[in-house]
Amino acid sequence: MERIETDVVVIGAGAAGLTAATELKAAGKRVVVLEARDRVGGRLWNGDFDGHLLEIGGQWVSPDQDALIETLAELGLETYSRYREGENVYIAEDGERRLFEGEIFPVPAKTEGEILGLIEKLDALVAEIDPEAPWAHPRAKELDEISFAEWLGTQTDDEEAKLNIGMFIAGAMLTKPTHAFSALQALLMAASAGSFSHLVDADFILDQRVVGGLQQVPLRLAERLGDDVVKLEQPVRTIRWSPEDPAAGVTVVTDSLEVAAERVILALAPILYSRISYDPPLPRRQHQLHQHLSMGFVIKVHAVYETPFWREQGLSGTAFSPYELCHEAYDNTNHGDTRGTLVGFVSDEEADGVFSLSAEERQAKILESLSHYYGEQAKNPVLYYESDWGSEEWTRGAYAASFDMGGLARYGADLREPVGPISFACSDMAGKGYQHVDGAIRMGRLAAANILQG
Q1: Of all residues in the chain, what percent carry a pLDDT higher than 90?
Q2: Which CATH class is domain 46-62+78-84+205-209+297-391?
Q3: Would you list which residues are annotated within the binding site?
Q4: Binding residues for substrate
Q5: 300: pLDDT confidence band, cut at 50, 70 and 90?
Q6: Coil, strand or helix: which one is 347?
Q7: What is the pTM of this model?
């Protein structure tokens, strides 16, 4: 087995790990990055399918994501605006297709008032939440012991209002049913974006895309680090260290490498920590914490057409409905492409349901749902692809891990706490930028800074 000596080992070549490695190398540290996959990027992945670029993972940039925007500029990557000209589509409970502009859906006046009232209440609560420490809120325990569904029920009896507000957090972000996470977890999600109003505003939260795809961030970071630093297809099996002799450092073992270092950064989703054996075992607190975190589940559906036909109908491509299989969809046409691409999302329990079908039946049902927004032409793409992160061995869900009921207030403060020479960094534990690339970059920077400060 080959043995390497270095200063810091980073496990995971996603945005967090590569950012940490870049910062450490710039400060003069020797670094090795070990990645289980045969590619860099983690939950960022640009796929080429018959000449069609599809962003299988994360892809959008919003104006508040300072760390990501700085990184894009530093790497020389250009962005372009998501197409949003024309009217949006909303499907009502009875299947009626309604066109609208702006952020608020075309619902009955009473429901609209309830939606606006809920947004106002949530914005007020979010303003009290520090996204870096939501557990510090005076009512954290109380808010973490009530599900978001139950909290919504205490605020309104309007079912359509509850479904629509829930959709922005549950379907669009945490990708879990509203009964499966707490009000505090919902408030953290909104606080991480600056406000609940930002989550409602698709033109804000889904503002820009990167020319050539967002995976170029980790690709360019890895290229700068070099092949001698970034080592692919190296799943880590064991981490050994001595609590009695911290100066002895840490040994990280893969199937073909043994890397000796002073420190190690786990830059992967917390649900994957258990894939590694630790000698000595991680403390009880970490074991318990990790058992209260789980990934959400969403299918990201890509449908490519000869032309963006919906634009000819005066549609923006933006579509929503809490009653549809695809609860949201957007014009996802690539920069400079004459073809048109739609991207739609099927979340949580709905995603469970369609995966009980054959691939052909699942595609037909999903395209049928898209046709309710865009018409019969939506049923006939030239390319159809489903991003199923739940089946990825080194991801196991999307978009990020969140706590079960009561877990955030109970364990949140321990998420980033180092264990001996082991530090943690990923978007799943970010405050600002939580579950986004921006948060991954922030956590990578923080882990590197903590190591450099000793």
Answers
A1: 97
A2: alpha beta
A3: 35-36, 236, 345
A4: 345
A5: very high
A6: strand
A7: 0.97
